Structures are given as structure tokens and as C-alpha cells.
Amino acid sequence: MVTMGRTLTSVLLLFSSIVSLAYAKTHYHDFVVQETKVTRLCKTQTVMTVNGQLPGPTLEVNNGDSLVINVVNRAKDNVTIHWHGVRQITTAWADGPEFITQCPIRPGGSYTYRFTISGQEGTLWWHAHSSWVRATVYGALVIRPKQGDSYPFQKPKRESVMVLGEWWNANPLDVIREAMRTGGGPNISDAFTINGQPGDLYNCSRKDTVIVPVDSGETNLMRVINAGLNQQLFFTIANHKFIVVGADASYVKPFTTSVLMLGPGQTTDVLIKADQPPARYYIAGRAYASAQGVPFDNTTTTAILEYKTAPCPAKGVSSKPVMPSLPAYNDTATATSFSTSFRSPKKVKVPTDIDVNMFITAGLGILQCPPTAPASTCQAPNRTRFTASMNNVSFVLPSNFTILQAHHLGVPGVFTTDFPANPPVTFDYTGNVPQSLWQPIRGTKVYKLKYGETVQIVLQGTNISTAENHPIHLHGYDFYIIAEGFGNFNPATDTSKFNLVDPPLRNTASLPVSGWAVIRFVADNPGSWIMHCHLDVHIGWGLAMVLLVEDGPEVSQKLQKAPADLPVC
Ligand code: C2O
């Protein structure tokens, strides 16, 4: 009987997996990266886009589906595309960061990304992962429940995608090239955007302001993505509340708030109920700027939530939408109360027997210029150049080979495996750090993990040069954020704050300004996975490291073989 029962169960299991396989679809897309003339703020720039669109196409799939995206580079600069937050289980070749998992797609070249979405639902996005190309090469990736499954909340009447971006009155690639040449900070952006549009608080932007239509009483599932380059953003809607239901393509225990804070890389899914008098309400985003004394873009981007039955304004009367109040630019208390509100919907299996314990400092630094260097290349304060590091290593991308290929083919000399699991010197990370500790070393160092190891990483922000909030993103994984706090992480007392019951699952952690965050995950995806600050200016300065996860014993635990069209360097 027992055997028969088992057989029946396995037949049923087999049947159900065939059914879900039968439903899984493969989506084919062509992404043509091209130089496109785009006019914003009364000025026209030539920037890179996908298919001439800004933002690029929204991809809509169901959990379990596969994507085949042929990227053709018809632009003048290199490009790669990263599918931000997609786990890429055994398909690291399709992850996208240049010189980590692939060489750039050169002008005239192409590459087809093939991967499957498995076990992720909600909102992710895609973006270029080469220099600052992602300033204009980005778009949403909407993942609905598996065919036949439903949302874990009442089905919304409407859905909308709000991709927040940043716009320069310049070619963003020129902005970063200039910063890299001078060693100083790059120019700040001239506008923030919602779905590519700054909104009517900026010059020449009124007629293109994004409108989100609603009917009284209906609920809208709004997918908010911060695709901005260098700025954490507050996001709010006048007179309406958000019910947060997901983040980074994982559901969360619903909670209500009137303001969101997203670091670049993060996504938040919210339900908005149209329960206010029919009118027009501003949806607004502006900076959460946690670093003191650092210039930032203090403008406000807007869209309009418009009730379809809103009375038309009488002639001569202005129909200014209702403006929400936004938190102050430096309102860390609001940012913190938001980021600490996240929980998984129910009890989850957080790894508890930790095999690998890392403590990684993350922050800025400076490099002293040699006496022979021209002053024009040492434009950070006191003849220095800005830099950044993790555990005092300022990450340098390889330039003629990728880390993944070098690992796979056993090519020596591309990277070293001595990324330190702890900072080389212990100091008061969030205190007054002696200047002698401000200079990192440069290197292409990775940290090796065996397949299946359980990992805990304490991310510790530093006050070196400037303390600030850093959105730390890990490729190839979702991780639990089990605690965060301010000051130096104290293992004797802070472990009592660990949430091992229902911590949120994320791919990008908001590392508090002058603070710490603790993440945990199981290294169950082979490949070379970059972990970096998602402020692009910091990546360029070296705020990154790579986890190199080895193959497991089973076939399903090994990196698949490299695609034949993988670009070579
Ligand atoms: Cu969204 Cu390494 O990136």
C-alpha cells in the first residue's frame, strides 16, 4: 500500500510538472542597441537606446517562462545587458556584467541571452552593464505568477510600471569619462524621470508628463523600479497610501506606508486604492541624499494619478494636481523605517549553520596622486583621486578576458583568489577614520565558495571620505537581510537582532549610512557573481568584489557550457 501510495504521488508529481512545463512559454525578443536622438528639458542628446525607446521595452513573462533575447549592437560604444535580479541558475553566461561573465558586445556585434525565470514573481528589470550605458539602456521585467496561479492578494483591476531614471543634459558616457579623467566626482544629473519623462515641474516637459489613469474605487498594482544611476529616491503619491506587497521579485508581508525609498537596483510592488475624491494627484520622486556635503540633484520628478471622472477644470482655472509632501533630502529616519518594515510573507528557511562568515567593509576612499601626475587628473580634494573599496580592495575589472571564462577554462593571471573575508585592519569604521587608512589597494580579487556552502556576510559601511547609504547588489542570488543597524556591527550584541524567522528576500540591500546590514544565502548557483554598490559612480571607483561559486557534483548543479556566440574580448 505504502509503495502504491508513493507511486501514485510520484505519478501525480510528474503529471503536475508536465502540466506546468506545458504552460511555460519561451519569449523571443530583438534588442537593437542604437544611437538615438532624444529631447528632454528643451535639449536634444544622442544617447544609446534599445529599439529607439526610452525606457526600453517592458518584458512581460510568467514565472517559469524562458527568454531568448538577441542583442545587436548598432551603437558606437560597447554594451552588455544584465537581467537584474534574475537568478540565472547554471546560466551565468547570460548574466551580463562586462568582463565578469562576458566580454562586451562590440559595435557591430551581437549576442543572444538565453535564460529561464524560476521561482521569482514580481518585478525585476534589465539594464546595460558596461560603463554608464545603463543611463539610457534599461527597462522593466514584469514576472506574473505561473500560468494558472494567482497573486497572493486580490487581483488588481489595473497594473502600471513606474521606472525611475536619471537624465543628463549631456551624453552620460562623456560625463563618466570626464570624471574618470579628472579623478573628481562626476556631474550630477539634470533631472529624474518617470518612464523616461521628467514631468511638468521641469522646463519643456509638461506635455509629456506621464499620466496614470484610475477609476474611483479600483486598485492599481504599481511596480516601481529605481533605474537611476547614482541616486536613492523617495517616491510618494499625494493623498494616497501604498500597500507594499513585493520587492525584488519576492512577495512580502503587506504593510502600509505613504512613502517608498528605493536605491538604484531595487524594485517595490505596491497596491494603490483609488479611494480619494476624483481629481489629479501628483506622483513624485526625489533624492534621498545621505552623504553630507556631496552635491546631488535636488529636482523633483512627477507623474499624475488621474481619476477618470475628475472634473475638467473650468476655463482659466489652473488644474494643478495635488502635490504630496516629500521627506527632506536627508531624512534617514524615514528611509530606515521603510527599509526595516520588510518581512517575508511567512516563516522562511534561513540558513543557520554558517559555513562561511564574511565581514566586508564598503565605502569610499582616496588615492594620493604621485608628484608627477598633472593636477588636471587629481581633482578630488588635496591633489587626490576618488576611489572606493570593499575590505580595502578597490576592484579592477579585467580587460582582456572574463572572470567566468578564466575560471571555466583554467586560464591563469586574470584574477587572484585572495579577496579577504575580513578587513585587513580593524578600526572604528564609522568613527573618525585616520587618513592613513583611506587608501585602498587595487586588484581583481575574488572569493571562492564551494557549491552549497551557507554564507553570512556582514556588510559594514565606513565613514572614509564620506559616509553614505550604499545599495549593495549581489548577482545570481537572492539573500535574506536578517538585520541592519547604525554604527559598527557588534557581534556580541547585534546578533540578538537577527530575524531568522521571516526576513525579507532581496537582491539589493540598502546599507544604512554609517551602518551595517547582515545577509545570508546558500551558494547554490555556480558562476562568477559580482557584488557591488549600485551607484554607478561607486562601481567605477571599485566598490565591488566577486564571489566565485564552484560547480556542485550533480549535473543540475554545474554551470552549463558556454554559448557558441559568447562575445570574445
Ligand atoms: Cu543592476 Cu550589477 O547590476
Automatic annotation (TrEMBL):
Its cofactor is Cu cation. It catalyses: 4 hydroquinone + O2 = 4 benzosemiquinone + 2 H2O. Keywords: Apoplast, Copper, Glycoprotein, Lignin degradation, Metal-binding, Oxidoreductase, Repeat, Secreted, Signal. Residues 1-24 form the signal peptide. Its EC number is 1.10.3.2. This is Laccase. One of its GO terms (biological process) is lignin catabolic process. It is an enzyme of class 1 (oxidoreductase). Pfam families: Cu-oxidase, Cu-oxidase_2, Cu-oxidase_3. One of its GO terms (cellular component) is apoplast. It comes from the Eukaryota. Lignin degradation and detoxification of lignin-derived products. SUPFAM superfamilies: Cupredoxins (SSF49503). It is found in: Secreted, Extracellular space, Apoplast. Residues 33-147, 160-309, 418-551 form the Plastocyanin-like domain. GO terms for molecular function: copper ion binding; hydroquinone:oxygen oxidoreductase activity.
